[in-house]
Design a protein that fits this description.
Blueprint: H1 2-7, H2 13-22, H3 27-34, H4 38-46, H5 53-69
């Protein structure tokens, strides 16, 4: 999964959904972390709207840092 984030410039809706699920995050929780609506996450995962390229970097950050704080259930701040 980490290699997917390093190789592509934009994520497919399936890749995005897979990464979100692998982080153990609900659509609502990820929406709060990204500062978007749950509907935006749904639109990205359904392919209705294009996923911004910056989201790839935010997901990479989450993959790197979220695991260590996942037990506290406090979402990290995405720079």
């Amino acid at each position: 999964m980490d290699s997917v984030l390093k190789k592509v410039t934009c994520l497919t809706s399936q890749e995005f959904a897979h990464i979100r699920k692998s982080l153990g995050m609900s659509k609502v929780r990820l929406a709060k972390v990204f500062g978007v609506s749950r509907q935006t996450i749904q639109n990205w995962e359904s392919g209705r709207t294009k996923i911004p390229s910056l989201v790839r970097y935010a997901l990479a950050y989450l993959q790197e840092h979220y695991q260590s704080i996942n037990t506290s259930r406090t979402p990290p701040l995405v720079p």
